[in-house]
Amino acid sequence: MADERMDADTPVFAIAAAAELAGMHPQTLRQYDRIGLVVPGRTRGGSRRYSLRNIEQLREVAQLSGEGMSLPAIARLLDLEDENRALRRRVSDLEHELREERATRPGVRVFAAGTTGSVMAVPSGRRIRRPTEVVLWRPWLSGPEYTDDVATDPDDSRR
């Protein structure tokens, strides 16, 4: 058996087990799947398989529905929660990439945009000579070790 890591999104529960864990009738789960409210994974044969996250969503649907929230409003809320989770995961990935990049390029402190819109790192102290490139970001550091010959606004009070 391959080394597979199970997480909250791994579909493992058949509909009867998921219904019992969520405290619902299996027909309710089928209806929620049909309307796209809580959509489980599927086996090759087409059987529904629910993850722990699906069961958590089913419980949340039951609670919100019991409090009077409509199913379309609940669907929107679940979509926003999924989007939020994906965005947090993306931010975490980008932060990790940034830490790795900083570790491998400690002298890079200025970034510029190329003519195609690509972002490139420019080592600190290097002057950008081509008028087709624009400096996008440079940390506002003081001290002689951080001064370079990149043009700056003399009236800029941040320096």
From TrEMBL:
It comes from the Bacteria. The keyword Cell wall biogenesis/degradation does not apply. InterPro entries: DNA-bd_dom_put_sf, MerR-type_HTH_dom, MerR_fam. Residues 12-80 form the HTH merR-type domain. Keywords: Coiled coil, DNA-binding. SMART domains: HTH_MERR (SM00422). PANTHER family: HTH-TYPE TRANSCRIPTIONAL REGULATOR YFMP (PTHR30204:SF58), REDOX-CYCLING DRUG-SENSING TRANSCRIPTIONAL ACTIVATOR SOXR (PTHR30204). This is Helix-turn-helix transcriptional regulator. It comes from Microbacterium panaciterrae. The lineage of its organism: Bacteria, Bacillati, Actinomycetota, Actinomycetes, Micrococcales.
